[in-house]
Amino acid sequence: MDIIRQLESEQAQKIAEKRTLPEFQAGDTVRVQVRVTEGTRTRVQAYEGVCIARSGSGFQENFTVRKISYGEGVERVFPVYSPLVEAVEIVRRGKVRRAKLYYLRDRRGKSARISENTGVRARKLNDAERDAMNAERDRIEAEKVAAAEALAAEKAAEEAKEKAARAENAPAENAAAE
Questions:
Q1: Considering the domain boundaries, does residue 125 fall inside one?
Q2: How does pLDDT run across 7-34, given as a tens digit for each residue?
Q3: CB under 8 Å to 127, separation ≥6 — which residues?
Q4: d(CA 151, CA 138)
Q5: pTM (two decimals)
Q6: 140: part of which helix (H) or strand (E)?
Q7: Fewest C-beta in 10 Å: which of 48, 70, 81, 140?
Q8: pLDDT tens per residue across span 34-70
Q9: pLDDT tens digits for 105-147?
Q10: What phi and psi values does residue 84 have, to the nearest 5 degrees?
Q11: Average pLDDT for residues 164-176, to the nearest whole number?
């Protein structure tokens, strides 16, 4: 393995440890949480649409999401390992027979819809991903609670230290006042 591929795989593993992407393919309706920076403020914006393609492999892998915004078709390409992509959640699974759904660009209205996949595999994937997402949310919530408790304990220790310091200084101040 050459050095570039090795570095790319290490970076991909590092990013994959921080967040896990669900298993999705062309035809699935996804909601991508994207970090947007406007001036000095940063916020997370949801971009929901149909995944019409996945291309590339390894660190250069990306997926294209198409949505209709105010009657106009809008497509956006997201790199899978981009730090700007916070999360991807699957809204529904589509039943398609193609890997690239570029033909949807020419369709309007009901003909551009994709029927939902209700097969056994799709249900298993949905259940597994729902469990994984719930576990991830619980883990993040537990981390937040632990951080809040640590902060509260730190504050309480600091207040106790200040109270003890005041108690030591109080007799000295009383003696000086007399």
A1: yes
A2: 888 888 888 777 778 888 899 999 999 9
A3: none
A4: 20
A5: 0.66
A6: helix 120-177
A7: 70
A8: 999 999 999 999 999 999 999 988 888 999 999 999 9
A9: 888 887 777 877 777 777 777 777 777 778 878 888 888 889 8
A10: -80, -20
A11: 71
Task: Give the DSSP H/E element, type plus range, for residue 73.
Answer: strand 72-79
Separation CA 37–CA 79 (nearest Å): 17
Does residue 140 belong to any structural domain of this protein? yes
Closest CA to 93 of 25, 33, 20, 22: 25
CATH code of the domain containing 9: 2.30.30.790
Which tokens belong to 123? 């249900």
Q: Which residues contact 27 (CB under 8 A, 6 or more apart)?
A: 50, 51, 93, 94, 95, 96, 98, 101, 114, 117
CB atoms within 10 A of CB 37: 9
For residue 133, give Cα distances in angstroms to 23, 28, 36, 143: 12, 17, 23, 15
Task: Show the tokens assigned to 166.
Answer: 């005041």
27 and 51 in a single domain? The answer is yes
Are 77 and 160 in the same domain? no
Residues 123 and 87 in one domain: no
Alpha-carbon distance of 36 to 42, in angstroms, equals 6
